[in-house]
Write a structure and sequence with these properties.
Layout lengths: L11 E4 L9 E7 L2 E6 L5 E5 H7 E6 L6
Antiparallel strand pairs: 1-2, 1-5, 2-3, 3-4
The structure holds zinc ion.
Amino acid sequence: MLLNPPLRAGDVVQLKKRHACGNDLWKVLFAGADVRLKCELCGRVIFIDRGKFASRFKKRIEIAEDGN
Ligand SMILES: [Zn+2]
């Protein structure tokens, strides 16, 4: 599956819009048709679809290492 923007589980991403807790950094838990993100500050987990994620995405802060 082509992921745009590039994304994989373990990455830390910055979104344009801040979470209610004031944080804008999210850990990627799952990246596919939907994206599961965990707030780095308050720990809240959210699910958003890929298109919505792409429109909110600002940049990758950390890139996960290869899992093998
Ligand atoms: Zn939060």
